[in-house]
Every structure is written in C-alpha cells, then in structure tokens.
Amino acid sequence: MFIFLLFAGVFLHSVWQAYKDFAFYRDNDWDYSVDSGVEIYKGDTTDKCARMGNRDRLVYGHAFMLVVSGISCLVSWLLWDSGTIGTTP
Known about the structure:
Keywords: Membrane, Transmembrane, Transmembrane helix
Radius of gyration: 16 Å
Transmembrane segments: 60-80
Oligomer: single chain
Number of helices: 2
Number of domains: 1
Shape: elongated
C-alpha cells in the first residue's frame, strides 16, 4: 500500500505542476519567452544545458512525467490489489 501511495503522491504532484505551468502560459497569452519557474531536465540535473525549454517542457516534459507516474501508480495498485505485494506466505 505504501508503494501505491508514494506513486499516487508523485502523480498528483505531477498533475499539479503541469496545471500550474499550463495556467501560467495560458494567462500570459502563450508567451514562451517568459519562464514560469518550473524546471524539467532532459538528463543530468546538474547540467544547466540539459534544462528543457519553456515550450518543450509544457508540451513534452509534463506529458512524459504524467504518463510515467500514472503507469507506475496503476501498476502498483494492480499489484497491491492482486495480493502480490504486502502478503505474507
């Protein structure tokens, strides 16, 4: 159950970040020259060159994070619900 709650929390956080980013650019008339402050990296988080651009982050980065966290949440729920995880033999 803990694994499911962890992935559910990550998914909800991803939804919240995507909503904030989407609302920011919607309110600014889709002006991608202004940075919303949300950072998503294409690779190493210590390399500032790996930071995604504003439009790429909104279109691709959030979609990728939502898909990965959503699938992880779903798989952990299905494993927990089937009794594979958390049962003692």
